[in-house]
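Worked Example 4.2. Consider the chain below.
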Amino acid sequence: MNVGFISLGCCKNRVDTEIMMALVSSAGHKIVNILERADAVIINTCGFIQSANEESIQTILKTAELKSGGMLKYLVAAGCLAQRYGQALFDEMPELDAVIGISSFAAINDVLAALENGERCLNVGPPPETFVEKGPRIISTPPGSAYLKIVEGCNNHCSYCAIPSIRGKLRSRPIPEVVGEAALLAEQGSKELVLVAQDTANYGYDLDGQFLLPQLLKELHDIDGIAWIRLLYLHPAHINDAVIDSIASLDRVVPYLDIPIQHASSSVLKRMNRKHDYEYLERLINKLRQRIEGLVLRTTVMLGFPGETEEEFGELYHYVEKSEFDWLGAFSFAPEEGTVAASLPAQIDEDLKNYRLNAILGLQKKITRQKNIARIGRNEKILVSGQLSSNLYTGRGYFQAPEVDGITLIKSRKKLPKGEFAPVRLAGVRNYDMIGELIDEPAQ
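Applying the procedure from the previous section yields the following structure tokens:
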């Protein structure tokens, strides 16, 4: 049958979608990019926060319209929302022909076969005890770059986060398996590996009782064909000197770190159960900048956590202002079912949350623009990802992570192969994006 996919939420979810795509293709099904041509559509849902839940539900309902119009036979929900609310989705959304949890997505071909036999399937069980989210993938990211999931689940138990209850406890993928997939991705043309997990800094602790990220980075560094190794989602409490040294000393590990701090007030951090305070955070960021040349930092912060006072918000605002992160994402607290923070007193008014969120975003917009302006005149290696016109291409520098940061627009009269690097002189800024020209070409 013809099968279409919709992948919602984070890049970790995308990896699972790519595995399902490969499984479906290996069984003889055809993957289609136009949903109107699909016999079955598989929606890999996100269920991390309220807004993601709502997006997933709306996507299911919107796609179900194709069924009522006679263009679609089967609709399947997978991923975090399916894992979290599987029975409720199955009971309350007759539009869904199957609901499969995170432990069961590898059986997608069995599910499709059951649907063809007239069955309706609910397949949701406890999170696995070991890392099972692996297998051949059909890479859906732009040429030259691929995500590499090294950990599933999480042991941090931040008071606002439902991930441990959805995805289960920390389970790291053994180093030989990670290196094997990385080598395969390199053979397939990936120049950049983007390492992802709920907490990449905690990699390996469940395997050996110690942080194994430095060892993993060293082995990945030796793979022919890989030029960039990028680290996302490092919990501050697990970034130790060995991790810092490995990043600083391995030239293929790009000096770009995504470190979600969530807040800067010690009292809020304690209520969040982040396992460190403001003083630790300040020391860590200063140490990183001192020891890693050319460091680019991205972070995420949360506004309106229960009990957040004006003073505590002010601490966060001033820290963001002082620290000048290159990139910053922000979101408002939403009480998630089953989390400690959902029942905390002094929940913050939505209007006040939005005010504080907009204040932080407005501040960061100015900081990011100044950071980008400071890059004008530099020569950078840009990974080409697409083409907009005959002489205009898109790409990313090491200072730009895929999907979450800006891009670099490249003016070039020469053809630039997608998935390859091009030497570019940065010449301007447009919103969050950089504008550059292929080196050795005259200015336009």
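The CA atoms of residues 366 and 411 lie 26 Å apart. The chain has three domains: 2-123, 145-375, 379-438. Compare this with Example 4.1 before moving on.
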